[in-house]
Write a structure and sequence with these properties.
Mean pLDDT: 83
Number of helices: 4
Structural class: mainly alpha
């Protein structure tokens, strides 16, 4: 029993001697700093303000979604279609026609005149 105790003490002493030798080799610098994390003194208040802002934003979003628009999209679409038609009418080449199939302005005018004449014939037949 005494021998076991002495052997335990000698092994512990060897471990301590090795640790001291490591400390001497490493110049004894501390490797476990206990720096507490920096905490804000007003973190709780900032968190509460953030929650309030989030709730206010949700309320604003709900009010916006419940409100009907004052603009009539159908009118905008009709106006855009009219604008596109005017642009197509004044364009030198029709929109979407590949370069090989483009025609000169006189041929386009002639084709448009033919379409107008056909439309007039259809109208006269219906009257």
């Amino acid at each position: 029993m005494e021998e076991d105790r002495l052997s335990t003490i000698s092994t512990d002493n060897k471990k301590l001697a090795l640790k001291l030798a490591d400390i001497l080799r490493s110049k004894g610098q501390v490797d476990n700093w206990n720096d507490p994390p920096a905490r804000s003194m007003n973190a709780q208040k900032r968190r509460m303000e953030l929650l309030n802002v989030c709730h206010e934003n949700q309320a604003i979003l709900e009010r916006i979604n419940k409100r009907e628009s004052d603009y009539r999209r159908e009118l905008w679409e009709e106006d855009w279609q009219n604008t596109e038609r005017i642009l197509q009418d004044i364009a030198r080449y029709p929109h979407g026609v590949p370069l090989q199939q483009k025609k000169g302005p006189t041929k386009i005018l002639n084709e448009k005149l033919e379409k107008v004449e056909e439309a007039e014939e259809v109208e006269s037949q219906h009257d």
